[in-house]
Design brief:
The strands form 2 sheets. Strands 1, 2, 3, 4, 5, 6, 7, 8 and 9 form a 9-stranded antiparallel sheet that branches. Strands 11-10-14-13-12 form a 5-stranded antiparallel sheet, with helices on both faces. It has 2 domains: 34-58 and 224-345, PAS domain (Beta-Lactamase); 60-221, 2-Layer Sandwich (Beta-Lactamase), CATH 3.30.450. A hairpin with a 7-residue loop joins strand 4 (136-142) and strand 5. It is 39% helix and 24% strand. The protein has helices spanning 5-74, 86-96, 170-175, 222-233, 266-269, 285-295, 341-373; strands spanning 102-107, 112-117, 123-128, 136-142, 150-151, 157-158, 181-187, 196-206, 212-221, 238-242, 248-251, 308-314, 317-325, 333-339. Helix 1 (5-74) runs antiparallel to helix 7. By secondary structure, the protein is of the alpha+beta class.
Length: 374
Amino acid sequence: MKFSLRNLLIVPFLAQVIGLTGIVGYLSYRSGERAVTEMTQRLMAKTGQQADARLDGYLQRPRFVTDSTVYLLEAGHLPSAELVPMEQYFVNHLQQFPELTDLTIANEAGAFLHVTRQADQSFAMRQRYVRQQDGWLYHYRLDAEGLSPVPSDLPRRQYDPHRAPPEDPWYATAQAHPDGLWRLVVSLDQGYDKPQLVMVRFKPFYGPDGEMSGVVGAGIGLVALGSLLEELAGDGGQLLLIEPNGNLVATSTGEQPFDAQARPDYAQNVTVQPRRLAMAQSHHGLTQAVAAALQGNSPDFRHLQQPVFLQLRYESHHYYVNFIPMEGDLDWGLITVVPAAEFMTEIYLNVGRTVLFCALTLMGTIGLGLWTAG
């Protein structure tokens, strides 16, 4: 087969032009991809810090309410023996702080008062040794103003706040932490068949003689925390709160981060640990994939002491994942998950423009070469 001198000149020329054009296009794409990844990492770190600050502000409410209530009790401005006047005080605070799920007080005599917000924004109340002195726990419904308590249809039962839950009473635990502590508890205020997990800030208060007088608590439901994360996550992304052992605290996906099945035995029904849901046990596939990527070969997430940024693929989609340890007295971790497609739109536009430019350049160069050779 014979080749003309013209073909011998044109073919290598075209091969070089096509090769160089392809290399320029590929390098342009890779450069843009790296730039987007770096920008995404910085942006997600900033977003995580902003979400952390918002969550900290949210959790400041229970701290503030417990601290201020303890101050008023110890100063004698609130009753600690007769708890009936505390009903309206609690309702007023729940109205003032919509972040709060419930408020609690118990004293050394065994009196107990618990006011909680319901889904319809009315209030429910549980009492022991407040209106009745027989040791039973009574349930009441309140209107939106917290007035006119009406007995509810929930069955009354014997209850001692000093011994609840039986295996690890919250009252004694709070007594051992004079500066206050966070603790998860199972709330049955919506019914014994509807247990809910609530993160409560407990703090003890003392009488003029320095002796223990009682405990105050202010709580936020894990479902309410999930609603806040959903608001912060926006469309397409995920926000997750986890503990170092891998248990879910809250998620923006709408998944309930605990087992809400009722138990036939009361002691089992109010035990917290069996209700916890590990992140790796989530019913959400992407959450499981993120857990596996962050956990690696470790048995839990305790090795994550510093911010972590990584990428993963799940069901043929590309995601960016950012983990930061939260500041403050809760050792939670905050995870942000964002689809890479949200950041790659500009890259795809640039690639399209680059391909078009390269194609036009290639065709112009080839045409010019052919015209010159002709």
